[in-house]
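FORM 7B: Structural annotation worksheet

SECTION A. Query
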Amino acid sequence: MKVNCDKEGIKRALQIISQGGIAVFPTDTVYGIGCDPFNKTSVEKIYEIKSRDAKKPVPVLTYSAETAMRIADFDEFAREIVKRFWPGPLTIILKVTDDKIKESLGLKDKIAIRVPDCKCTLELLKRCSFLVGTSANISGDFAHTNPDECLRNLQDYDIFIDGGVIKSKGESTIIEMEDRNIKIIREGSLSRKILES
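SECTION B. Predicted structure
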C-alpha cells in the first residue's frame, strides 16, 4: 500500500505499525524502513526484507532528545552534541537503558539513536515515539532518495509513505563517545570538522 505523506497517510501508517506492520518512509537523508522497535517479530521481518546480517543491530529514530532519554543514557557531553545537531543527520550510540527494547532489538548494551530532520517522519514519530529506522534497501545496495527506485527495489513491507525525492547530502554520520572524545563509526553528511567545531 502506498500513501502520501499527509494527515490520512500518517494515520494509516500508524495503524499498520501498531499492528506489527512494516513501513517505508522518507527521512532527511534517505528512505528508511521501520517498525515498532518493541515488537520483536516485526524487527525480525526487517532483517528478512533487507537480507541484513542478524549480528548488525538496527538504529532507532525518535521524536526528540527528551524522548530518546527514555531509552538511552545521555551524559552532559551527549546532551550538548544532540542539542546542536538534532534534528539532523547524526546518529549517536549510547548505553541502552530500556530492557524491553534491548531484548526486542537483540542489543548488548548500546543503542544507535537519531532524531531525523524530516517533517513527515517527525509527524509519525510525534505519535508513536520510536521507530526502527534503517535504510530501505537490500543490505549492500545503494540507499534510495527517489521513491520510485525504492518501490522498484524493495518488497514485502506493508505501507509506503511517499515523501517525494529526498534532497540529501548522504546518510547520517554515526558517532560514539569515549570520555568526551568523538569516535566516528561512519562519516556521513556531517564531517568530523563540523562535529568537533
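SECTION C. Observations
The chain has eight helices and twelve strands. The chain has one domain: 2-196.

SECTION D. Sign-off
Analyst initials: ____
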